[in-house]
Design brief:
Layout: H1 6-19, E1 22-28, E2 33-39, E3 44-56, E4 65-69, E5 81-89, E6 94-98, H2 100-103, E7 112-116, H3 117-126, E8 128-132, E9 138-142, H4 147-157, H5 164-174, H6 190-215, E10 230-234, E11 250-254, H7 255-262, E12 266-268, E13 274-276, H8 278-286, H9 293-298, H10 316-325
Parallel strand pairs: 3-5
Antiparallel strand pairs: 1-2, 2-3, 3-4, 4-7, 5-6, 6-9, 8-9, 10-11, 12-13
Helix pairs in contact: 4-6
Bound molecules: zinc ion (ZN).
Length: 329
């Protein structure tokens, strides 16, 4: 049936939050889970998450209808908490998020929430998919990479309903963010337009990260470390108008080497040879900040690891511009 123990569902939540670049602190280890999620910039969100397996109900139900059986009725969230009502579909590896407002104190002998298989399939392919079910509820199905974007924008997302805006929202996922759907004059609501703009950027970021982590096999190109510490770094920094989200403008780096790369302490040339920026090192030494230098250089490879597919190799023009902007040449 592809159902997981509830404790394994918590593992999926934790890895989704981590994948999105947030840190989860588990405050309650039973359904509903209470998780404090914190990002690197000091933002912190309290999440009360109800989660169950999303399965086919069997019996006389339509072949393409999947459901979540709510074995506990979601209670209203406490102040400052985000209430999240989820299903996990293990075969598609996607979360299904229901509108919490519709399920708080839901009555009936066997409360459940439904979603069509088409939405599961689309979300697996497109990162996320918004669908409206027969009861008029807007449901968001998503890959784990979209989870924190969903959390932050959930109240707006569940308001979409059946409208032209819903089609434009889904276009952002279908086109991996390479669309002007958020600028369409059809969108009248200013707040909704802003949500769509943010989602477009997040989809592009997550897509870039996905491609880089896959190309570099989740391994730091400079030191070979994995351990879930990999970042997707841009070679030409994103603040430059010449930066792109192409895979050949990215490199997989661990958190330490990403920071050192962005600081211009370490870089690589067009032959992929790793170099320490001596001018930068001199400045650090002058301020008594060169401690740990020997260990730092000992862990560096001589040349960076490059992906198997030539098209994903860092492009020489990006390497050159990135080094100029970080004052490495
Ligand atoms: Zn590294």
């Amino acid at each position: 049936m592809g159902t997981l123990k509830i404790s394994l569902l918590l593992d999926h939540l934790i890895s989704a939050i981590n994948f999105c670049g947030w840190r989860p602190f588990i405050l309650n280890e039973r359904n509903p889970y209470l998780i404090q999620a914190t990002d690197g910039a000091g933002q912190s969100i309290a999440l009360r998450i109800y989660i169950w397996n999303c399965t086919h109900g069997g019996g006389k139900r339509a072949a393409d209808e999947y459901r979540v059986q709510l074995t506990k009725i979601p209670a209203a969230p406490k102040r400052n908490e985000h209430l999240i009502v989820l299903g996990w579909h293990d075969a598609y590896q996607v979360f299904v998020a229901f509108d919490p407002k519709r399920h708080i104190a839901q009555t009936g002998d066997s409360p459940s929430a439904q979603i069509k298989e088409r939405a599961l399939e689309e979300s697996n392919r497109n990162m996320f998919a918004a669908h409206v079910n027969a009861k008029g509820e807007t449901i968001i199905a998503m890959r784990p990479a979209f989870f924190m974007t969903y959390v932050i924008n959930s109240s707006q997302l569940h308001k979409f309903g059946k409208s032209a805006d819903l089609r434009l929202l889904n276009e952002i996922g279908e086109k991996r963010g390479e669309t002007n759907a958020d600028e369409s004059p059809e969108i009248k609501d200013k707040e909704r337009r802003e949500v769509m703009r943010v989602i477009k950027q997040k989809v592009r970021d997550a897509d870039f990260r996905d491609r880089i982590l896959t190309a570099y096999k989740s391994t730091c190109a400079m030191c070979g470390i994995q351990l879930g510490l990999l970042d997707a770094a841009h070679i030409v920094p994103v603040y430059s108008p010449k930066s792109t989200d192409d895979t050949n403008n990215g490199v997989g780096l661990c958190a330490l080497h990403h920071r050192a790369f962005d600081n211009g302490l370490v870089s690589f040339d067009s032959k992929y040879r790793i170099e320490i920026n001596q001018a930068n090192l001199k400045i650090l030494s002058a301020h008594g900040l060169d401690g740990g230098y020997t260990t730092f250089t000992k862990n560096l490879r001589k040349v960076i690891y490059i992906p198997a597919d030539r098209r994903d190799h860092p492009h020489p023009s990006h390497i050159k511009l990135g080094r100029i902007l970080r004052r490495c040449i």
